[in-house]
Amino acid sequence: MTLTIKKCTFEDLHTLQEISYETFDETFKHQNSPENMNTYLERAFNLTQLEKELSNISSQFFFVYHNSEVAGYLKVNVDEAQSEKMDGESLEIERIYVKNKFQKLGLGKLLLNKAIEIAMERDKKKIWLGVWEKNENAIVFYKNMGFVQTSSHSFYMGDEEQIDLIMTKTLS
Q: Measuring CA to CA, which of 136, 140, 160, 169 is 20 to 30 A from 108?
């Protein structure tokens, strides 16, 4: 098994959209209405929105490959690109998704370690993320990786308000 991480570029836009739709749908479709899922997917992962995000110098996307297949991706934000107002010492992991068929192979940990590496290179003191309170597998994973819940915020899936736990890890 060969695992590699590659930074996304504009040439990857369609692949980024495909994996965004696929991984988000796999992860959340069983707990949300089709209408709310479709509304969210169309808003968050349309090509114009993804191109805007790729253009932001304070955001970066990375694909993780299992052998030669895109298996997941990571999006990190600093400064004004963060989805919550945070201090300049923070890096946000906005998205970390792995296709279901590649779960439990260490790819999430690999992507998380990439985010930590980026944070350290940028002299950040902590990393943080929002995770849906009903995404129990992700919450356990992040706790095992040293994150603690520091607050929460509202997240809208279509017209439904949901709660994301804000989890933070202090870097040494």
A: 160
Task: Go through 35-46 and write b for each residue having 16 or more CB atoms within 10 A of its CB, e for each that does not.
Answer: ebbebbbeeebe
Dmax over Cα atoms in the chain, in whole Å?
43
CATH class belonging to 3-170: alpha beta
Nearest by Cα to 119 from 110, 130, 107, 128: 128
Q: Are 94 and 112 in contact (CB under 8 A)?
A: no
Q: Is 142 a catalytic residue?
A: yes
* Active-site option among 65, 97, 142, 156: 142
Answer yes or no: is pLDDT of 111 > 90: yes
Neighbours of 87 (CB within 10 A): 9
16-38: pLDDT as tens digits: 999 999 999 999 999 999 999 99
